[in-house]
Fold this protein.
Amino acid sequence: MKQAFIVALSFMVCLTASAGELDRVLSSIEAAYGGAEAVKRLDSYRLEGRVDRIAGDSGQVIRDYLAPDRMKVGIVYPDRTEVRLVVGDEAWHFGRSGGAKVRGSFRAAMVYQLLRSSVPGVLLRNRDRLEDRGLVEHAGGAHRMLAIRWSEDLEMRYWVEVGTNRVTHVEGTLRMGSRDTVFATEYRDFRTVEGALFPFREKNYASGRHVADTITDTVTVGISDPGPFEPPPGLDSD
């Protein structure tokens, strides 16, 4: 009985230590992005820039984000316009052939984009769902991996660079039928905007293949009217 009590007590101490370490990591991330007030400004922003697809064409992009779960991305290519909209658990896609609500893996892929676009707030808001997977090596440096099992068909992983406490790499594993597909984004060219740290360059991958770069020209943080985030009439229901 005494031995069992000691084992249980040791386990609780380890849990407390682990929880304390995660809190320390999150505090360091918040500080790296400018502190609590600056991070709050990142809860609503508008990004304007360019998307260069490795396949060949480029488009002008506007991304509107409003925490915790709204995002609208519009990309104007020379021959077409593409719009992605996420509102809570629902998502829509608009393209050459019109617009429609998307489900399953298509919706999960858009939720992945929202969750990778909401660093560091998504980590701070979901502290109780985070799994600390410890130190890993990435791109020749030490990182701490934090993971969230977001849904049955989506797991998110965030690489936090030791030393800078910046999230430099994000992956999302999507369950697509009987197989998994991994999307990834590398973040570079961090700059300070109104006290908040923001990456101005993104390298995007699908299944290990480099598919596109996003180059930010301007980002406005703390805006009061991002969006709008409502789908056109006729597309707002099943």
Remarks:
- Confidence is low (pLDDT under 50) at residues 4-17.
- Helices lie at 2-32, 36-41, 104-116, 121-125.
